[in-house]
Automatic annotation (TrEMBL):
It comes from Gymnopilus dilepis. Pfam families: Mmc1_N. The keyword Transmembrane helix applies. The keyword Transmembrane applies. The chain crosses the membrane at residues 526-545, 565-583. Residues 618-645 form a coiled coil. Keywords: Coiled coil, Membrane, Transmembrane, Transmembrane helix. This is Uncharacterized protein.
Amino acid sequence: MRPCPTCLASHRLLTISHLRLSPKGFLATRARLPSSFLAKRPVTSATTTTSPPTGVEPLTVLHKTVALLPRIPNYDEGPNSRYTEANRLWEATLSKAYEDFSAVSDRPIRIAVLGVDEWSKPQDVVTALLADPLSSNEEHFAQMSSRWLDPSLQKMEIMYGPENSFTLPTVRSTSPFLTQFPAPVELFEFRAPSLDPTAGLSQILQNPIIYEVDIPMIVCNPLTISLSSVLSSRLPVNTILIVTSTFSQGDLNAIVHHHSSSLPSSRRLHSSTPDIVSVDPRRAVEAIRAIQSQHNSLPAIQKFQNDFLGSNMSSVAHALRKKMGNLPSSPLIRKKMAISHVKNALQWSSFRVLDLRNTLDKAFVDVSALEARMEEIRVTVESRVLASDRKLERSAVQEATQEAEVRLKEIMASLSWWRMIWKVDEISTIISSALRDLWCSNLEKKLLLSTGELSVLQADITESAFALLAKHRAVDTAVLRNALLQCKTSLGYPLTAATLTGPIQLRRDQLIEYPTMRLHIAGQRAVLVAATGVLSGIGISWAGWMGWLLGTGEGLLGVIALEPGTAIGLGMLTAAAGVRWTIGVWKKAKKRWWEDWNRATLNQAMDRQVLVVGKTACKDLIQLIHAREQELAELSKDLQEVELGLNAIVDDVHRKS
């Protein structure tokens, strides 16, 4: 295996391995190495500047991002939620990004190292990165190796210092790793959690430090957690994923490509794939420990060279340089890190909008399910209890009304026009008495049992409506909850014994008061018209007969030139027309009465009492979901515009680096 040119320790040891080794020769050779070779970072000119990206200015994009963040809705969480904490985090992070965009001085690049679990060994990664194989200070290496012995220590800050010092949780080190980049480096190391790997990864993702630092490095062991699980997480754009296992870079790239292609299009649009490196930190630490104990042994140096290069630790430094963009000065790197923070904020906002849309979609599915359930209940209840207009199987209500209809038809048939004439003043009395005796007389007892069943359904639907609000906090508004409570506490909400029997009595009274009364009036009018027609016919016939009797040949109707026989015929025709008109009027009146009978319905209790809370909830929830979807659509459009401006800036930075 060829030595990695980016590994400083390997470069030095390869040089030394070609020299004749003796205790004096080794120390003398090390003393002759130039200071620039001992990992001093390159000196850059303070006058190095770069022109701002053309088209869109970074500060403009930053200001737009800051203005967009407060517009992200907080539908599904309370006032003291993680969303509120995230807003505070982004406010502080973007404030620092503004300083980075405006600064011309140096500041350390903040790097966080977090392990998914204790088996990922992040402490070995940091030890291997900071160790100096050429240093004879074994005490410092021992301190570095045992820095996590204190169980109460959870976080450690490691920075460059002229001398090694351990004032935990702060460590100052002369490690060449901290000064080999164009900008100084500070490490924030966290204790690996003794948790399930999935829980450990969740803990990392909830740690605000991964967004506060410039470059988070997450260490995982593929034997305890799958790479797919880590890659499926929403990681910051500058994340470096360190896999503590020996994978070739080609295999890692294939895994990443396969995972990215399996993601939904919505996730691929907003996700950023981290840089992945495969290292063996334990092998590197053992190699450093061996060379420090036998630094004048050629086999030890050769073994160190093989083991350290085989650990692939140099790929971490290479990934860090890639994240810094190979820019020549610290101010330019600060601007690049600021761009990354803005991109993280936009990515978080996009994911937040995506989550809210998914939440609204789930709420809409549950609302539709509740609507379907209520419709199913309506069909079931109407088929078994209430009269249904859908021609389902006969129910108790249908049987009672049809039985009453058959018996009333007999009574109505007995009221023929000639019998109606003699009972014209008793029509309403006859029909009213029949309605009181025949209209669903035995149905009230059956409906009392159905009232209890509907009470159970009413409580179930009401509970389901409030459970729907509790399940989906994104649509649980105080206004909607108050509207449902008003429906529940209204006077017409409770189901009583008269809930189903009341409409029967009401309909019976309506039939007596309106259709029956119209039938009575129509009968009286028909009798009056018939009497008028008959009397008119008799008068005309009498006049004709009198004319014939007197022998005038003309009679009283001679003035209109009617013969006596014609006059008698006209009188009879007039009487017959009056009777025929009376028959038609009576038939039409009875037909209208039956139409009023057929319009009787008993299913108002379903809409006004049993399903009222559920129907109100579904109606208002659908309106609320549509309104919030429109709000999120407008927000997504604005986010895409800001992302396009940021992408133009990133492309310009890449061209200049």
